[in-house]
Amino acid sequence: MVTAHKDWDIKLTQGATTHKFRLLQQRGQKAWTVSESPPNPRVETEAASREGFRPDRELPFVMEDWVWGVGLERFGSQALDRGHLFRYADGFNIDTSQAGIIQHGPLAESLGSVSAGETILEFILFQDKVYLRTTNKLYSTDGATLTEEKDFGAAVTLSMAVFNDKLYIAVDTADTYWEWNGSAATSKTVTDGASLFLATQGALNPILIRVLNNNFISTAIDPNDVTSWDAPGVKVGEGDTINSIFVVSGFPFVGTESTVYILATDSDGVSVPIELDKRLATRRSSTAFSIKAESGSDAWLSDGRDIMRVVAEGFELFDIRPDGPFRSFDSRPVTADIKGDPKSMAMDLDAVYILANRSGDIYVYKGVELTRGQFAWTPWAKYTGTNAAAAVLKVTGDADPYLYVGNTLEVLRFKTENWTTFATTWELETPQFTATLETWDKMWTLIEAFLVITGSAKAEISYRLNNDTGYTDFDDATAGNNDMTVSGFNQLKLATPINGKKVQLKITGTRGATDTHKVDMRSFNLEGLLRPDRKPIFDFTIRAQTSTEITFINALRTDVTQFFTVTDRFDTDRTVFMLPGFPIEQEQTDEVLKEPVRTYRIVAQEVI
């Protein structure tokens, strides 16, 4: 309560000094006002603020395109950074490579399993069948039946290539490689055997390249005739083991433990290895450049950690550059959550597929070149297991290509286009949304989404605030759950608003009663309001009658090393600082004293 006989209206204290003051009174009112600082945020366009609405009235979080792919942890503050409008944090079993839609990812089709103890190492198309090389065996599949074609016993298979309507298999048996004609295998004896094979076009005839003694290159135009091999072969580098051979723009390339070489030809027709880039030695390892996928016009390489792309820049001019889903094409770093260990690669005319292990799950990242040299990546598929091989292949009768992958002992394939069966569930995590106002509180109550649903499929929405690790269901107040089941417009409204400085959504799609049911998303809109930090502003005018009081008031402004305390008539203390431009000295008439007095108007903000 206010004590009636107090001889002051407010007290001002700084340090150990306190002064009591009377407030100016005019027209029956004391010159004392407490208000709040109005919000005045600057919201960037990429924060999805809807045009035409002030950010202190409405602050929606809107996404309607995800085409630039995975890896963005938080929306940034660079309006011209295109990636920040069309990217998301993480997900699986989705395809976002087409503008304006999250597509339900394909279902994996099992083609059977290889023998226990085997590892699926390579796929290849031969005589209109898909052949796969395992540790010690050769298998084939026509899409319906997986058949064991050849058991090499204790010999470990190393590579295979199709040449002159034969399939040649390199093994670790000394002075030996194998020829498969589609029905029978024939052992070939040649000095030093082979560790890797590559079929390509020579100057006059197709040639088969082999790697012997892990470091020499030899060629033949008819490997069925073991005497046709060049001898003694071309030595590559300083004796490092050759891990891969591939072709870009007609030139053979050799990847060793230390670097990458181009096999050029001198004026005498002799192959000459030329090192592509000496800096590649910084990637030296026993598995360097051992994982590859090639199209003829470019090639992708990995050592199980880094991913690189070899491209032709001009005639006999090549470049190798870091690339892949774990690197960012813009100024924002890729979120660490999506990073994995590459295990295999594949490619076709439309996309690059990189399979990476993430904590025991294999994620299939699909890369699409949206602009020249810039790939956007989508977490297209996911399965639990191990992987060491992948290939995109199309046999006669297939309407579309398939991605063939190894899953421990199981052979899986995914339709790469126009799939009609769908993964059990898919998931997408949005970036963290702050509207670029990191320290401001926001309030969210309602989310809307436009879905394309067939059958009994559905989408579910959950959220997490600030630095929470787990997600909470965005349950509708009426329905009592977070399900969206309508093909078209859907809405969820919370019974109680949620509050935080940042929010992140997780959208989960679930197929219906059969694997032909799906749910795609076109857009969502999370309606929000800005809740600025409470910043009380005190505006009051006091009477000053002595030079000591005037000196004290001016010190409140000039002594910037301290705050001061305002104590009102209700004995409530507030720690404040004076805003620039105050105090303002005026001579005014006080109706209590009924005479002119010297007054000081002070405007101060509370320190929260």
Structure description:
Residues 30-50 are annotated as: Disordered. With 608 residues, the chain is an all-beta fold. Among the domains are: 10-37 and 535-606; 45-85 and 427-531, Jelly Rolls (Sandwich). Helices cover 2% and strands 50% of the residues. The strands form 13 sheets. Strands 1, 2, 5, 48, 49, 50, 51 and 52 form an eight-stranded antiparallel beta sheet that branches. The protein is elongated. The model is unreliable at 44-53 and 78-83 (pLDDT under 50).
What is the fold's blueprint, element by element?
Blueprint: E1 10-14, E2 17-21, E3 25-26, E4 29-30, E5 32-36, E6 61-63, E7 69-70, E8 87-88, E9 90-92, E10 94-95, E11 103-104, E12 109-113, E13 120-126, E14 129-134, E15 137-141, E16 146-151, E17 157-163, E18 166-171, E19 176-180, E20 185-189, E21 196-201, E22 206-212, E23 216-220, E24 234-235, E25 242-248, E26 251-256, E27 260-265, E28 271-275, E29 291-294, E30 298-302, E31 307-314, E32 317-322, E33 341-347, E34 352-358, E35 361-371, E36 374-384, E37 390-393, E38 402-407, E39 410-415, E40 425-429, E41 441-453, E42 458-465, E43 472-473, E44 483-484, E45 488-500, E46 503-510, E47 519-531, E48 536-543, H1 547-558, E49 564-567, E50 573-578, E51 584-590, E52 595-606
Parallel strand pairs: 7-8
Antiparallel strand pairs: 1-2, 1-49, 3-4, 5-48, 6-47, 9-40, 10-11, 12-39, 13-14, 14-15, 15-16, 17-18, 18-19, 19-20, 21-22, 22-23, 23-24, 25-26, 26-27, 27-28, 29-30, 30-31, 31-32, 33-34, 34-35, 35-36, 37-38, 38-39, 40-46, 41-45, 41-47, 42-43, 42-44, 42-46, 48-52, 49-50, 50-52, 51-52
